[in-house]
Automatic annotation (TrEMBL):
Signal peptide: none annotated. Residues 271-488 form the Histidine kinase domain. Keywords: Kinase, Membrane, Phosphoprotein, Transferase, Transmembrane, Transmembrane helix, Two-component regulatory system. It comes from Qiania dongpingensis. This is histidine kinase. Its EC number is 2.7.13.3.
Length: 490
C-alpha cells in the first residue's frame, strides 16, 4: 500500500512539473518573443540569400562578358593569321597559351575537319572533337556553357576565313570558376557573420519589446493579486492598451456587481432574520398574554389561538417560499417539462383565483389570440402566473379589473398580466423582483404576502429560458409581460 502511495506522489509531482513546463510555453511574453524573432529574422535571411545569389550571378555574368570579349579578340587574330591552315604561328600560339593561363583554364582549336590542332594541355592534340557545341559553332553560333558543379565556364567561338565568308574552325576556352566560388564563399561567410550579429541584436530587441508589450498585462496581474488581499474593495485601472482598458473595465464592472450581490446577500440575510422573527415574536407576545392572565375567557383564548395559528401559517409560508427559491437557485434543478395547452392552463388559473377577485369585486378577463401549445413545467409555470395574477388582484382598486392576454409567434409565446391597480413608483420598479422587497410594507403585510412571490416568478421564468418585463405607472396600473420559448431546450 505504501508503494502505491509513493508511486502516486511521484506521479503527482511529475504531473505538476509537466504542467509547470507547459505553462511556460503558454506565456504571452514568450509567444511575442518568438513571433518578433521570426518576423525579424526570416526576412533578413531571405534578403541576405537574395543578395548572395544576385551578387554571385552578377559576378559570373560580368566575368563571362569580360572573357567573351577577350576571346573574340583572340579569335579575330587567329582568323586573320590563317592559323587554322598554318598552326605553326608562334605569335598566335603565344596568345592562346597566355589567354588560357590568365583564365586558369585550357584553350583548344579545332579545324574544319573536326581535328584538334591545338590544345594548351597537349592532351587532345590530333584527336577529333565532334561535340554539340563544336557542331553549333560550325553553323556560326557562338556558345557559352556555365557549369557551377563542374567548376568551369566553356566559351566556344567560331573562326572565320580571312574574308569572313565561312567558318573554318572552332576555338574552345575552358575557364576555371574556382576564384568565383572562393569569392562566393567569402561573401557567404561574411553574410553568415552579419546574420549572427543581426540575430543577436534581434533577440535582444525582441526580448525588450516582448517585455514592454506584455508589461500592462503584468500590471493587471499584479493589481488583481493585490485586489485579492482586499476583496471587493479596490478597483484596477490599466490604460496602456485598449485591451487592458477593456479588461480593467470588465473587472471593475464585475467587482461592482459582486459588491451589489454581497450587499444583496447581507440584506437578504437581514430580511430573512426579520421576516422569520416577526411571526415568532407575535406568537410569544400572544402566548405570554395568555399565560399572564388567570381565568382567561374561552372567547379570548380562542381569539388568541386563532392569531397564533395565523402567525404559524405565515411562518410556514415564508419557509416554503424560501425552500422554493433555494430549489430554483440550484443549477442542477430539472424541470418536469411536458407539452401543455397554455390557453386551458391560464383559464384554470383564473378560475381558481376568481373567489379572491370577487372579494374585491375585481373583474378577471382572459384574452387568447390563438391556440398555444408549449413545452413547460406545468406546476412551476402555474405558480409563476398565479403569483402575477394574485398580486394584480391584491394590489388593485375595488371594482377594478385584471386582464390576462396570450399570444404567440413562431418561436415564443407571450403572457401579459395587466391591472387597474395602484401601480408601482418608478424608483421601486427595479427592485420589485428582489427577495423580501416590498413597495408598501404595511399594505403588503395586510395582503398577506411574504415578499418572495415575484422573486420566485422570475426564477421560474428564467429556468424556462424566458424573460419578464415590468411596465407601471403610479395610480394607473401595472403590466407584467412574460416571454417563453415554445420549445424547451435543456
Amino acid at each position: 500500500m505504501s508503494i502505491r502511495n509513493g508511486a502516486l506522489v511521484i506521479f503527482s509531482k511529475d504531473k505538476k512539473t509537466r504542467e509547470k513546463k507547459f505553462k511556460r510555453f503558454k506565456s504571452l511574453r514568450l509567444i511575442w518573443f518568438v513571433l518578433l524573432v521570426l518576423i525579424g529574422s526570416v526576412p533578413v535571411v531571405i534578403i541576405n540569400r537574395i543578395v548572395l545569389a544576385t551578387s554571385s550571378n552578377n559576378e559570373v555574368q560580368s566575368r563571362i562578358s569580360r572573357i567573351q570579349n577577350q576571346w573574340m579578340i583572340v579569335a579575330n587574330q587567329v582568323s586573320k593569321s590563317g592559323y587554322v591552315d598554318n598552326p605553326q604561328n608562334e605569335v598566335v600560339e603565344s596568345e592562346l597559351v597566355q589567354m588560357a593561363s590568365l583564365q586558369d583554364g585550357r584553350a583548344i582549336v579545332v579545324n574544319q575537319g573536326f581535328r584538334t590542332i591545338k590544345d594548351t594541355y597537349d592532351i587532345d592534340t590530333g584527336k577529333y572533337n565532334i561535340s554539340e557545341s563544336v557542331l553549333k559553332c560550325f553553323s556560326g553560333e557562338a556558345n557559352v556553357k556555365y557549369s557551377p558543379g563542374a567548376q568551369y565556364i566553356e566559351f566556344t567561338q567560331p573562326i572565320y576565313s580571312s574574308d569572313s565568308t565561312k567558318v573554318v574552325g572552332v576555338m574552345i576556352l575552358s575557364s576555371s570558376t574556382r576564384s568565383l566560388e572562393e569569392l562566393a564563399d567569402k561573401l557567404e561567410s561574411r553574410i553568415w557573420m552579419l546574420e549572427i550579429i543581426e540575430f543577436g541584436i534581434l533577440v535582444v530587441l525582441s526580448a525588450l519589446l516582448s517585455s514592454w508589450m506584455t508589461r500592462p498585462f503584468r500590471k493587471i496581474a499584479a493589481s488583481l493579486t493585490h485586489a485579492t488581499e482586499n476583496p471587493l474593495g479596490e478597483e484596477i485601472k490599466v490604460n496602456d492598451y485598449t485591451e487592458t482598458m477593456a479588461i480593467s473595465d470588465a473587472y471593475n464592472k464585475t467587482l461592482k456587481r459582486l459588491r451589489i450581490l454581497d450587499e444583496s446577500r447581507q440584506q437578504f440575510v437581514s430580511n430573512v432574520s426579520h421576516e422569520l422573527k416577526t411571526p415568532i415574536t407575535s406568537i410569544r407576545v400572544l402566548a405570554d398574554s395568555l399565560l399572564s392572565q388567570e381565568e382567561v375567557p374561552a372567547e379570548l383564548y380562542q381569539e388568541f389561538m386563532a392569531d397564533i395559528s395565523e402567525e404559524i401559517d405565515r411562518e410556514s409560508q415564508i419557509i416554503e417560499d424560501l425552500l422554493t427559491l433555494v430549489r430554483l437557485d440550484k443549477a442542477s434543478t430539472e424541470l418536469n417539462v411536458t407539452q401543455i395547452n397554455v390557453n386551458e392552463l391560464l383559464g384554470s388559473i383564473l378560475k381558481r383565483l376568481k373567489p379572491i377577485a370577487q372579494q374585491k369585486n375585481v373583474e378577471l378577463v382572459l384574452e387568447s389570440f390563438r391556440p398555444v401549445l408549449a413545452e413547460l413545467d406545468k406546476t412551476k409555470f402555474t405558480l409563476a402566473i398565479s403569483n402575477l395574477v394574485e398580486n394584480a388582484i391584491k394590489y388593485n382598486n375595488r371594482d377594478g379589473w385584471v386582464k390576462v392576454s396570450l399570444n404567440a409567434d413562431h418561436k415564443f409565446f407571450y403572457v401579459k398580466v395587466a391591472d387597474s391597480g395602484i401601480g408601482i413608483p418608478e424608483s421601486d420598479q427595479e427592485h420589485v423582483f428582489e427577495r423580501f422587497y416590498r413597495v408598501d410594507k404595511a399594505r403588503s403585510r395586510e395582503a398577506g404576502g411574504t415578499g418572495l412571490g415575484l422573486a420566485i416568478t422570475k426564477g421560474i421564468i428564467y429556468s424556462h429560458h424566458g424573460a419578464i418585463k415590468l411596465y407601471s405607472k403610479e395610480n394607473e396600473g401595472t403590466t407584467f409581460t412574460v416571454r417563453i420559448p415554445l420549445i424547451y431546450i435543456a
